[in-house]
Design a protein that fits this description.
Elements lengths: L11 E9 L1 H4 L10 E7 L1 E2 L2 E2 L12 H8 L1 H4 L1 H7 L5 E8 L5 E3 L3 H8 L6 E8 L4 E6 L5 H9 L7 E5 L5 E4 L5 E3 L3 E8 L5 E4 L15 H5 L22 E5 L4 E14 L7 E7 L1 E6 L2 E6 L3 E4 L5 E16 L2
Antiparallel strand pairs: 1-2, 2-5, 3-4, 5-12, 6-13, 7-10, 7-12, 8-9, 8-11, 14-15, 15-20, 16-19, 16-20, 17-18, 17-20
């Protein structure tokens, strides 16, 4: 059974203590909630599974699509490896306040402790307020004992790497790397399908009832990567109407496609689904007689069996292209 359509999903919106209004005001998400921190665009997380919002498959869940279409949706190699589990979680994030300082376990630890995938992820900054920053990694080599001392003395931030960011900046966050999205940053996030986070410091923040969020001090200790990298920001190049690689790792490849006019794409060499996230402007996807509009803050899934499509934009637009090699 073949799948014959490009697929859009209903976003799953998440209220967060640190969330804001940019996902509704800039990315046009529909919600009357005050603090939307995350929009889960494509999710196979348990009890948070995406539902198709367009075409003949409208109302179907991502889980049922995988069950029905298998490698036609996923790709032969991807389906054989992940079976009925979709391997990526795709999000847009708005941090009105800084997120907790956190990290994620690798595959082995996550499997052992949580029966989950680990979490390697990447960020593409879509908008940043003046002087907004984020944390990625350590700014100097420290030992686990020194780390614990800094945690106890509330001096952890003195050994972390803060980067001021702007639109278009990219950060690759492998499992184990300490990180935090700073206040005033809105970004696209591509990650392994996992909702396991080890929170190590939450800025002494409390909710409206005076309750602090749980910290995962012990779990985090043997999950942290203490290595130092300089710089942490990912360098990449981009050319108009050309697909250029930004990040590649065993879990996903992300390319960038700045587009104005029309581009014909051929995915026949890929053995994977392809995801497009619109991070600037507005485009139209055409596959046979199907046309799907994608504006900033929207995401579309191209099944593995759809190889040829055309993307058109009347303005300068930017897409992220994501798949598994």
């Amino acid at each position: 059974m073949k799948i014959h359509q490009l697929i859009k999903f209903t976003p799953i919106l998440k209220e967060k203590i640190w969330g804001g209004k940019k996902l509704t005001t800039i990315l046009h998400k529909v919600s009357n909630k005050e603090a939307i921190g995350e929009s889960w665009e494509i999710s196979d997380v348990k009890n948070e599974v995406s539902v198709v919002s367009n075409g003949g498959l409208k109302g179907a869940t991502l889980t049922s699509l995988i069950s029905d279409y298998k490698s036609d949706l996923m790709g032969v190699k991807v389906y054989n490896h992940f079976r009925d589990n979709f391997p990526l979680l795709i999000k847009f994030i708005d941090a009105k306040e800084a997120l907790s300082i956190q990290l994620h376990p690798n595959d082995a630890l996550a499997k052992q402790r949580h029966n989950s995938f680990g979490k390697t992820e990447m960020w593409y900054v879509m908008q940043a307020d003046e002087k907004a920053n984020l944390i990625a990694g350590f700014n100097k080599q420290i030992s686990p004992k020194e780390y614990v001392d800094h945690l106890k003395n509330k001096t952890l931030t003195t050994v972390l790497n803060f980067d001021e960011v702007k639109k278009g900046d990219v950060y690759f966050i492998p499992s184990g790397r300490v990180h935090s999205i700073g206040a005033g940053v809105m970004l696209a996030e591509i990650q392994q399908t996992s909702d396991v986070t080890y929170r190590i410091y939450d800025w002494d923040r409390q909710d409206s009832k005076g309750v602090s969020r749980e910290l995962h001090t012990e779990d985090a200790l043997d999950a942290i990567d203490f290595s130092v990298k300089n710089p942490y920001k990912t360098d990449y190049s981009k050319r108009q109407n050309t697909v250029s690689e930004v990040v590649t790792c065993p879990y996903f490849t992300t390319n960038i496609l700045p587009i104005e006019g029309s581009v014909a794409l051929n995915h026949s060499q890929k053995d994977s689904f392809v995801i497009y996230m619109c991070v600037e402007g507005c485009v139209e996807f055409q596959y046979k007689n199907q046309i799907e509009k994608l504006q900033i803050g929207e995401t579309i899934l191209v099944p593995n069996c759809i190889n040829h499509l055309t993307i058109t934009s009347k303005e300068t637009s930017v897409l992220l292209e994501v798949y598994i090699q």
